[in-house]
Design a protein that fits this description.
With about 350 residues, the chain is α/β, with parallel strands linked by helices. The chain has 13 helices and 12 strands. The strands form 2 sheets. Strands 1, 2, 3, 4, 5, 6, 7, 9, 10 and 12 form a 10-stranded mixed β-sheet that branches. Strands 8-11 form a two-stranded antiparallel ribbon.
Length: about 350
């Protein structure tokens, strides 16, 4: 479908113009347009990846082009099809159940899927970190189970020819588990599962791929006003993203199943079963292994934890000025936004006049 979206580079999409500007869609449509703008201007994003360091694994911040993020080669944004909240069809081959959609699937105009991406629009600073010096500001992430399942599928997709090796890595830790939904058993097996995940990632980290696109908008402290340098794009590889819950699972103890421990156990189980048969009942895994918590929300990342993985000292060189809004949002379209009217906002702006 071809239409005028009012957003930079979004010509082909499964959303119509009104949907792009609706409350629930704009938070993924605008970041996509910002990425398109960065592609056209050859502006890189900060790339959070996993690497070997000091004999082990460490998350580091480098950079990535939007072309590599979208896996689109020499194609221009106008030659891409942006499918929001869609299934990445190649991963369906790895599940007996219908898999969840992800925030953004980038395709070419022949409908060939290129890249699945989760979009996490975040604000800098958070309300808590805004009270600290600017050098200690951070973002917060709330992660869905769809994101972690796509993390598992992406890891296996890059390594499917190594399925026997994958199975071998997880066999000892996984094969002895009697009940994957038993809190007592699983809490005591988390350490072994994390060791297997470490071994897997240390062996295959060079196969990591972009998974999470985190557009950041920065305000003047807790003020709603944009900072002069207002926008940045942070990209997480699947391996780096997984460290958010694997590393935390290691220190959460064995008295119960925390959300991070649950996410690590699910990832290990997915990879083990994919290594064994190449196909899993992904919905059963994510419903069965709930451990008393919600299944739609996988885990949350606080600003202090986020800062441990993102090299904030590098952020300034990736920040874009707020003036780019006039290039990303085409003339005459900003009026299509209909922000919620909130009493506290009305009082704030009325009494500050």
């Amino acid at each position: 479908m071809k239409h005028e979206s009012g957003l930079y580079g979004i010509v082909h999409s499964n959303r119509n113009m009104e949907q792009h500007w609706s409350k629930n869609c704009f938070n993924s449509s605008f970041p996509t347009a910002m990425a398109n703008y960065m592609m056209a201007k050859n502006l890189p994003a900060l790339y959070v990846t996993l690497a070997k360091a000091n004999g082990g694994l460490a998350v580091q911040s480098t950079q990535i082009s939007v072309r590599d993020l979208f896996r689109c080669g020499a194609l221009t944004p106008e030659s891409l099809n942006f499918c929001f909240e869609s299934i990445f069809e190649p991963y369906q081959a790895y599940s007996f159940d219908k898999i969840d959609g992800i925030d953004l699937v980038v395709k070419d105009l022949n409908d060939t899927p290129l890249a699945p991406l989760e979009v996490k629009l975040t604000v800098l600073p958070t309300s808590n970190s805004s009270k600290k010096p600017q050098s200690q500001w951070g973002c917060e992430l709330v992660v869905r189970s769809a994101t972690t399942s796509y993390c598992a599928f992406g890891m296996f997709d890059a390594l499917k020819k190594n399925h026997a090796e994958i199975r071998e890595i997880f066999e000892d830790a996984c094969s002895s588990i009697q009940s994957w939904d038993n809190t007592f058993e699983m809490s005591h097996k988390t350490g072994a599962l994390c060791e297997a995940l470490d071994k897997f990632e240390e062996r295959f980290f060079k196969q990591q791929r972009p998974l999470v696109m985190e557009p950041i908008w920065r305000t003047q402290g807790q003020s709603p006003l944009l900072d002069e340098k207002a926008f940045c794009l942070v990209v997480w590889s699947d391996y780096a993203f997984s460290r958010l819950f694997i590393d935390k699972a290691k220190v959460d103890g064995n008295r119960g199943m925390s959300r991070s421990m649950r996410a690590a156990a699910k990832l290990a189980r997915c990879l083990w079963e994919l290594g064994r048969s190449g196909k899993i009942h992904v919905n059963d895994i994510y419903r069965q292994m709930a451990f008393g918590n919600q299944t739609d929300k996988e885990f949350a990342v606080e600003a202090s934890l986020w800062r441990r993985y993102v090299d904030v000292k590098q952020l300034p060189k990736f920040m874009l000025g707020r003036e780019i809004l006039h290039e990303i949002i085409l003339d005459g379209f900003i009026e299509r936004l209909r922000p919620e009217r909130r009493f506290d906002q009305t009082l704030y702006f009325t009494m500050r006049r």
